[in-house]
Amino acid sequence: MPLQHLPPDARPREKLLSHGAAALSDTELLALLLRTGMAGKSVFALAQELVDTFGGLAGLLNTGASELKLIKGLGGAAKRTQLVAVLELARRAMAQQLREREIFDSPGAVKHYLQLHLAHKGHEVFAVLFLDAQNRLVAMEELFRGTLTETSVYPREVVLRALHHRASAVVLAHNHPSGSLQASTADVQLTRTLCAALGLVDVRVLDHVIVAPGGATSMAEQGLV
């Protein structure tokens, strides 16, 4: 049923204005963003399909434009760009939080921030969060892509970027497109190599976060950093 045919108290926009955004379900919020469905599929059905397909809003936010294109009803650019824009706003909001306060004031925010950046990628990416002396975010850079080993991630390049940003500390991160959140032997060895290289220029490695579509795990919390 089109939104305009619903009773006024059941329309997401009117419900939001009357009771606040928190009163809406995930499906209703998405329906409000999408605005219209398609022939044979209401906007609520389209919104529910997105929630079901990607495992809720968290999974949807970790989804790229190419995956969204596979959903019938999102083949056109308009709705996809709306959803991708929301994703980018979420990234920027989290980045602002991490720049304004010490990252370990909110460790969950760091994981969520990295998930938004890395979880949807179909190839492995190695990224670094560069931090100032107060452990606030200065910059994030994706430095390497492909199968990650000691030989494909160059410690010299990581050190040079840390010096460029005048970083006092870093958080390393990479994704596992396979979905595994377990640190491999290669992950542990790479972390040790980078800790040694960065230590020579007095830059601390605070953590190495592994990201997958289903979540993120901290190697520091596992005693591996």
Strand order of the largest sheet: 2-1-3-4-5
Q: Give the % helix.
A: 40-55%
- How many separate domains? 2
The largest pleated sheet is described as: 5 strands, mixed
**What is the ordering of alpha helices and beta strands?**
HHHHHHHEEHEHEE
GO molecular function: metal ion binding; metallopeptidase activity
InterPro entries: MPN, RadC_JAB, RuvA_2-like, UPF0758, UPF0758_CS, UPF0758_N
Family: Belongs to the UPF0758 family.
Protein name: DNA repair protein RadC
Overview of this protein structure:
With 225 residues, this protein is an alpha+beta fold. It has 2 domains: 3-90, DNA polymerase, domain 1 (Orthogonal Bundle), CATH 1.10.150; 104-218, Cytidine Deaminase, domain 2, CATH 3.40.140. The chain is built from 9 helices and 5 strands. The chain has helices at 12-19, 26-34, 43-53, 56-61, 65-68, 77-100, 107-118, 155-164, 185-199; strands at residues 125-131, 137-145, 169-175, 204-212, 215-218. Strands 2-1-3-4-5 form a 5-stranded mixed beta sheet, with helices on both faces. Helix 8 packs across helix 9. The longest helix has 24 residues, at 77-100. The chain starts with 11 loop residues before the first helix and ends in a 7-residue tail after the last strand. The model has no long low-confidence stretch (mean pLDDT 82). InterPro entries: MPN (IPR037518), RadC_JAB (IPR025657), RuvA_2-like (IPR010994), UPF0758 (IPR001405), UPF0758_CS (IPR020891), UPF0758_N (IPR046778). Keywords: Hydrolase, Metal-binding, Metalloprotease, Protease, Zinc. GO terms for molecular function: metal ion binding; metallopeptidase activity.
